[in-house]
Each structure stands twice: as C-alpha cells, then as structure tokens.
Amino acid sequence: MKYDKNYELYLVTDSSLCKKYPLAHVVEEAIQGGVTVVQLREKTADTRTFYQQACQVKEVTDAYHIPLIINDRLDIMQAVDAAGVHLGQSDMPLSVARKIIGEEKIIGISASTEEEAQKAAEEGADYLGVGAIFSTDTKKDATVISLHTLQQIKANIEIPIVAIGGIHQDTLLKLKGINIDGIAVVSEIMTADKPKEAARALKHIFYSIKSI
Predict the structure, then answer these.
(1) Which of 9, 40, 131, 212 is the most exposed place for a label (fewest CB within 10 A)?
(2) Dihedral sign from CA coordinates of 64, 160, 197, 20
(3) Residue 134 contacts residue 144 (beta carbons within 8 Å)
(4) 57-112 per-position pLDDT tens digit
(5) Whole-model pTM above 0.90?
(6) What value, to the nearest 5°, has the Cα angle with vertex 56 and ends 54 and 62?
C-alpha cells in the first residue's frame, strides 16, 4: 500500500492510557479527527500482545490509508507488513535496519542533538522525531532540549522534522515560528474522552502556528 508521507499530526500510542475505549477505537477516532500517521509504541507489552495490537491497529490504519509505524521492533513491523519502523539512538543502527526492511519502508529516527539529527539524515532516515521538547510523563527519562536546538535542526536538516515530548494544546503554541513539519502526541489524544475532537483541536492549532 502506498501512503502519503504527511507527518503533521503523528499519534504515538500507549494503551495503558486508554481508560475509556479500546486502543483500536481511540486510533480510529484520532484518525477521523486528523491524525496523519500512527506509531504503535507499547513498551510493556510482550511480543505476542504487541503483535496482536499491531494487527488490530493496522486494520484501522489500512482502512483509512494511514501509515502505521512500529516502535523499535523490526520483527513486528515485518510480521504485520507495517509502513515502517521508528528507532531510537540505542536501537538497531539505521543502516542495518534499512538492509533488513528495504528501501520502500519508512524509517524514523529519534534525535535530541544537531549531531544526531545530521547523522540520521545522512544515513537515509525518512523523518526525525526531535525532542523531548517539553517535559513529559509518558517518557520520564527523556532529556528536554531547547527550542533553539529544535530551530537549528529544522533550519539545517532537509528531511521532515516532527517535534515530540510534552506537546499539548497550550505548549504547542510555544512552537510558533519554527515551521516544524509535524507534532507527535501521546496523552493529549490517548487520555481524551473524545479523541476525535482532541485530534481536531491539535490540528487546528498546528495549522495556526504554521501560517504565521
């Protein structure tokens, strides 16, 4: 399946935050509200559970022609034929992952410094997840970077830049003028009583800061 590589509203899952609806339901509502890419990130799930979740979520993302990215696990990505994989700095090297999954799949890389961002871009990453931009409860060990660092990465790297970490409706306004390609959100959508409306509100604010 061919996908539009639109990273404007990037949902990162955490099923432990889904108090009201099943994960697949939250993902579907979020897509209906404007989510353009979904990353399945389930840090505490065992392999079988992760695989089952991936199958369930991929049914939804395929129905809407939205790319599903699997966090870390190339085996799960291949098993469900997801659109791609997202790798951190301590995960498998990008060059090795590319040899395994091929040129057609999407590979995203986490970066928190200009050096990491430049290296990932040179090695062929399709996009960067840059952060943490703000402190976040969903990844307590994440190092918060300055908005200046984000601005420098955006100015000097040609591939899409997705800001991640502590992004909510109020903090998103602080990214005005940086012209990032997208925002990655977790709790703002995963914990929402109305995921569709939460996604829609975020997308509206994102467009407003992009137009300035």
Answers:
(1) 212
(2) positive
(3) yes
(4) 999 999 999 999 999 999 999 999 999 999 999 999 999 999 999 999 999 999 99
(5) yes
(6) 90
